[in-house]
Design a protein that fits this description.
The chain is an all-beta fold. The strands form two sheets. Strands 2, 4, 5, 6, 9, 10 and 11 form a seven-stranded mixed beta sheet that branches. The protein has a four-stranded antiparallel beta sheet with strand order 1-3-8-7, with no helix packed on it.
Amino acid sequence: QVQLVESGGGLVQAGGSLRLSCAASGRTFRDSAMGWFRQATGKEREFVAATVGSYGRTYYADYGDSVKGRFTISRDDAKNAVYLQMNSLKPEDTAVYYCAADNRIGNYYSAAHYEYWGQGTQVTVSS
């Protein structure tokens, strides 16, 4: 059974930083897309970042427009994990953040692309 478990969410002041982690088990995602999405109350799930590619090659990273230059996604294949470093946080970054993974690369910016999801971790940025 595949599981994705996020951690690292919490409450932070505007301008601060948080690092989210997502540990995958039950399947390796070395040739794949692994991403982060977020969903604020009353809003649709939004693409945040993804890392895609094949094991042994340089992974490609992409970001949603609202987080470019502030967030950095990375992955550790040895740990079957993906991370999201979030800097210069703003109140509008407040949301539940979800880790997602799929063994296809495809439309990695679309939530519909992903087969596996974590349970989500709350990030709250105070002004």
